[in-house]
What does this fold into?
Amino acid sequence: MSVEIRLNVRQEAFSLDVDLQLPSPGISCVFGPSGSGKTTLLRALAGLDRHPGGTLTVDGVAWQSKREFVPTHRRAVGYVFQEASLFEHLDVRRNLEYGLRRVAGGQRKVSLDQAVELLDIGRLMQRRPATLSGGERQRVSIARALAVSPRLLLMDEPLAAIDVARKQEILPYLETLHRELAIPVVYVTHSPEEVGRLADHVVLLEAGRASASGDVHELFTRLDLPLALGAEAATIIEATVRGHDDRYHLTHLEFSGGEFVVTRQRLAVGEPVRVRLAARDVSLTLERHHGTSILNILPAVVDGVSHQDESQVTVRLLTGAVPLLARITHKSAEELGIEPGKRLFAQVKGIALLT
Amino acid sequence: MLNSGDLTALLMTLRLALISTLILIVVGTPLAWWLARTRWRLKFLLEALIALPLVLPPTVLGFYLLLALGPDGFLGGAAQAWTGRPLAFTFTGLVIGSVIYSLPFVVQPLQDAFASIGRRPLEVAATLRASPIDRFLTVAVPLARGGFFTAAVLGFAHTMGEFGVVLMIGGNIPGETRVASIAIYDHVESLQYVNAHRLAAILLVLSFVMLITVYALNRRYRVLRA
It folds into this structure.
């Protein structure tokens, strides 16, 4: 199953021309600077704007074709806007019920209780939107969109209007959605952090064109794309919990390219975890050092090198088949003789668990 | 206190204002909704037309209405063919005149209220499966309720205060077209100041109370849009 999008929008100072196939289920992050057409794309998917000539198919159901345009209220869509946009004249419960009541019984797959529990908003039910904090409002708005049992969930920078602390409050709920809902999600953002935490699939949008579309692990480490060259460049790796070390209070993670050790986590053995390795936290050495405090040292092969700025380069490595980014200075690269095919060791200083 | 003629005139005023207000809300709501949402380039022409009664001397409006509602007018003629009498100098004629005369007082606050909702809540409702008419009734109307209240009160109060148009198209038929403002004029003409005082005071107090309510509930409201 998949979401197939073909759109060609021409406006005076702007055009959007995409032909995309997104996985279903799974979160596809549409990533790009403002003005790149992210919101235009999302509004077209919801049918809020009409762009004749495009086609859109969601899990085999045509929402737009040459002959047909299904209006927004007949699309099984859920839409979370950047500002929560709750109905100010209704309390939280009636906001949630607004969409739910308009979905035929047989098509309800998500119950109100499920949506409320998933976003943890049970104690807000009697409140008016005006009395909620920004984070609470956005959680209610996400639950409201889920309560219509969408077959495609669209999220337009849902965290952009929220301060950093509140973001950290909401991200875990989004990750839960990711695991529990078997629907495709198109998530628009300009934050590499959100892409790293949530995406299965990434679409890079630049000036109305999809400059790349693919698996998140692949796209994050492609040296020809801006993600790998930004200050926040990082590698996303899927790992599983292999076991715990009770003596030193450590947790062992394994992935297809090797193994990591991290501080003790409250995770069950066998549980999947996503980890993020910042490129600047990975250093390179020609020999495996023993007299070092760094626990995570992985044998790797240089796959490519990209000029970063006057003083730094970004090195793409392969550990097994898993790509890994390291950011080092030109000076070090020269002294180590970094070139494709070179065998060395990657020392990983920091590992962030994203789950 | 009030003699029976004045009481009849006062009740006639209230009846006229009530019926006109109901019709104004029914006619003004779709008109205001359309004006608030359309991107039609020439909508300013229609807006100016609706606002005309704000600046036109009531006698001018009354004069044209008299022609239209009389036996040779297009409205009066049709009425005569259908009911046997023209619309001029009837209560129905007064209602038609009042609706036109008070239209801007109802359409403008409603249009402002609908415009200030913005498109977003209606788009949200569409993504929550609400059809266009459903969105209008369950989102636009409740969110614009302040505008409805203002429109109703101003429409009512403005119709109550009508004089020139009534004089031109209604005349002064007791129990049919003789409203309070006309009765006051009659009393003054015949130097019956005591009777004029009583009716005038009642209208003054009623109007003031209504406007106080509107301004208290909606301090941002302006009668005339700049």
About this structure: Chain A has a mean pLDDT of 90. Chain A has two domains: 2-220, 234-353. The interface with chain B takes residues 46-48, 71-74, 77-79, 81, 83, 85, 87-89, 98-99, 102-103, 144-145, 148 of chain A (CB under 8 Å).
